[in-house]
Amino acid sequence: MNEALLEDKIKRLRAVIAEKKSLLVAFSGGVDSSVLARVASEMLGHHTAAATIDSPTLPRRELAIARRVAAEIGIRHIVIAAADLVPELVRNSCDRCYFCKQGDIALFRETANADGFEEIAFGVTVSDYGEHRPGLRALNEAGAFLPLVEAGIGKPEIGPIAKALGLSNHDLPSTTCLSSRIPYGQRITPEKLAQVEAAENFLLSQGFRQVRVRHQGDTARIEVMPAEFDKLLALRMEVLDKLQELDFAYITVDLRGYRSGSMDEVLMEKKV
Fold first, then answer.
1. In this predicted model, what pLDDT tens digit does every residue of 148-177 receive, in sequence order?
2. Contact predicate 144/122, CB 8 Å
3. pTM, whole model, 2 decimals?
4. pLDDT at 131 over 70
């Protein structure tokens, strides 16, 4: 990316955030929210904090990343406990993210009010509006503060911006909550989420960079990047043993490879 354009985007983001007296950053530890936390810490100092909701849908590995990156930035990190799955999430309709985000907003707002933060910033980019994201509707209804959108920053810029800001996770692959691994209409349970997390942790421990294990009843559908298919096949027996140990009867590989939002493809097919 053009260096001058990149610097202009960072300058605009700084200006957008500097308008606030105090700010709570909804913080996942991913690249988008890390950029927000980094700039908020720079512009607002101790008048800002990063908050992560710890729920059964958040992989332990991602909570660990959030803690590490917050410490690197030097921003205060608040972990909000959310032990239970909301009923609307359990039912797993195609709008589950809308209801889940409503619950998240309420938890963030409660924390912001208790700690005296003026507003809550969410790491939505302009690119997110081209995807199936019911959670955006909840954010828009709540009048949420979206600094990356206001600064005109999309997915192509976010990695280079994170790198320019010195963030160690600038090349971290995109992540989503564990519920996105379960097909719409199938109930989401803590047991299914734990199965998926353990399966993905195993594959990541084998050196795969981008992994999804889609939970389809007694079948695990593995998504990795096509360039890593040969590696996956070379580890076939190890993968079979581990995932069968996790109570998956059938283990399959999606030949289209990893792609964001593959569970949403059925929604697109219904619209055709």
1. 999 999 999 999 999 999 999 999 998 889
2. yes
3. 0.91
4. no
Kindly give, in sequence order, each residue whose CB lies less than 8 Å from that of residue 197, ignoring residues fewer than 6 positions away: 59, 60, 178
3-state helix, strand, coil in the chain (%, to 5): 55, 15, 30
Q: Which residue has the tokens 């997390």?
A: 197
Distance between CA atoms of residues 119 and 139, nearest Å: 13
Task: With beta carbons less than 8 A apart as the criterion, state whether 212 and 258 touch.
Answer: yes
Q: Check if the beta carbon of residue 63 is closer than 8 Å to that of residue 36.
A: no
CA distance 253 to 126: 32
For residue 130, pLDDT over 80 is answered with no
Cα–Cα distances (Å) from 136 to 35, 143, 152, 185, in that order, read 19, 10, 16, 21
Whether the Cβ atoms of residue 59 and residue 200 lie closer than 8 Å to each other? yes
Sheet containing 250-253: order of strands: 211-216, 219-224, 250-253
Q: State how beta strands 219-224 and 211-216 pair.
A: antiparallel
Helix (H, G, I), strand (E, B) or coil at 6: helix
- CB distance 232 to 253 below 8 Å: yes
Half-sphere exposure of 114 (CA within 13 A, CB side): 10
Instruction: Find the helix or strand (DSSP H, E) in which 120 lies.
Output: strand 119-121
Q: Which residue has the tokens 């955006």?
A: 136
Contacts of 119 (CB under 8 A, 6+ apart): 20, 22, 23, 24, 112, 145
Q: How far apart are the first and last CA of the chain?
A: 36
Place of tokens 């032990």: 83
Report, as an integer, the average pLDDT of 190-218: 96
Closest to 199 in 3D by CA, of 245, 231, 235: 245
